[in-house]
Design a protein that fits this description.
The protein is α+β, with helices and mostly antiparallel strands and 138 residues long. The protein has helices spanning 17-36, 42-57, 118-137; strands at 11-14, 59-63, 67-70, 79-82, 86-92, 95-102, 105-112. The strands form 2 sheets. The protein has a 4-stranded antiparallel sheet, with no helix packed on it. It has a 3-stranded antiparallel sheet with strand order 5-6-7.
């Protein structure tokens, strides 16, 4: 038996439910319209409703003591971002641009800030900028 320890995140940030709610409403309206008038569009409405529940359950950013994980969509891979590898964190419009060192290469990671609440946006920006500032001192 192995003695591996599963580390729990110190903070988890999900998509703001008020940003996803219109998707649920549109899905329900399409299903109702499909039942009443055009049966061919019921599938689209059901798909939007399913996407609402899937997107609301995704943990977009998990913050651990020494690293963070970012998963922007259900079909995209999760990015592992080590705290010591963050070189800069700049806000460009509605996106956070992270310059990260991965295997001796500089990679730019783009995190959209639109799906999050104002408080979550501020905490994400503060977290990554603090690590970038700390790493610049070294």
């Amino acid at each position: 038996m192995t003695d591996s320890v599963i580390e729990k995140p110190t903070s988890v940030i999900k998509v703001a439910s008020d940003k996803l709610f219109p998707q649920l409403i549109v899905g329900l309206l399409i299903v109702i319209t499909g039942i009443a008038m055009i049966p061919n569009i019921i599938g689209l409405g059901v798909m939007l409703i399913i996407f609402y529940f899937v997107n609301s359950s995704i943990e977009v950013i998990r913050i651990h003591p020494k690293y963070s994980e970012v998963k922007l969509a259900i079909i995209r891979p999760r990015w592992l971002i080590l705290d010591r590898s963050v070189e800069s964190a700049d806000v460009d419009g509605k996106n956070l641009l992270l310059k990260v060192n991965e295997e001796d290469k500089q990679v730019i990671r783009k995190i959209p800030l639109n799906p999050f609440t104002e408080d979550d946006q501020k905490s994400i920006i503060k977290y990554y900028q603090a690590h970038a500032k700390n790493n610049a001192k070294k």
